[in-house]
Amino acid sequence: MNREIRLAPEEIRSAKAAEPETRERDLASKLGISEGEFTAAWEGEGVTRLSPDLDAILPRLASVGELMALTRNEHAVHEKIGVYENYTPRGRVAMFLGKAMDLRIFRAHWVHAFAVEKDTAKGIARSIQFFDAHGDAVHKIHFRHNSDLGAWQKIIDDVRMPENARIPGFAPHTERVPATDPGEELVEELRRRWASIEDTHKFQGMIARLGFRRLQAIRSIGDRYAWRITDDAMEALLNIAANERVPLMVFVRNPGMLQIHSGLIANVRRTGDWLNVMDPDFHLHLRTTAIAECWALRRPSRDGDVLSVEAYDSTGDRILLVNGIWSAGQANRPDWQMLVNGLPRHSAIATA
């Protein structure tokens, strides 16, 4: 197989042997390689490379029964436990629209796939892991104690990469180009389009077509539609929602996947830099020390203005988005509207 990794597999395995307690993602970063490169180093030793053929893998996951879906970005980890059901292949963006799994799958970023088995104190931990062209994790599917091992293994056997297959290398990241000043004319056009949008699902596309990055658009729109709240507002929001039983939609995204939890949350607790939600079917791990800006947004829709809260890191990447639950004719439940409007504003209120 053709591989283009910067360290030889034996060097990576030796580094792990020297630091067995270090998390693999952290060790990969320390070595200057991606998590995907780290995983590829173990092929033949508990790791099997798979064809990243989503339509040959994802629709069959329902046969395995209960699994855990894990999607993360640099500062938030979103885990849902349940059955991968109601797969919709579509074109550029595939979906799961099931009771537990509410996922948006951006196909172009699913480049590498591996089946992973690890010996642990609790037995063999099994997962299927997907990475993008750079080796950044897109999505991981974790086997559960009550999953169907036969159905799981059949999927892996059917999509195992042939030994003579040509394997793409891991591409380095390109340097991010700084955002340019949009100018007042473009900002006015943004405000006009923002005010007239009727479907919040078209919001991101509208911003992108105008050439704005999301946080740049939020900073520019003015406090009629976006106002900055304190950096700890997301922690306050999650605690209030748990205590007052306000149902939420919690979104974590990376370039290849958007994963959503809808419903109540209950068990919110802090461990060091991380704020955690640890409910039976939903786990969230949020590195609150990475939040550089937190914003409340008002977006028009046919059913009224939809309120949301978004957290961003120092590079301008979104860490977490939280919406209320809405239904036809009601964009915001009164309890959600009261919660968002009660969050403390940042001292430097947006005045764009």
Automatic annotation (TrEMBL):
GO BP: any one term:
iron ion transport
Q: Which residues form the Haemin-degrading HemS/ChuX domain?
A: 32-158, 213-343
Note the InterPro entries from the entry: Heme_Transport_Util_sf, HemS/ChuX_dom
Q: Which SUPFAM superfamilies match?
A: Heme iron utilization protein-like (SSF144064)
Which is one Pfam family of this protein? HemS
UniProt region (Disordered), positions on chain: 1-26
Q: Which domain of life is it from?
A: Bacteria
The name this protein carries in UniProt is: Hemin-degrading factor
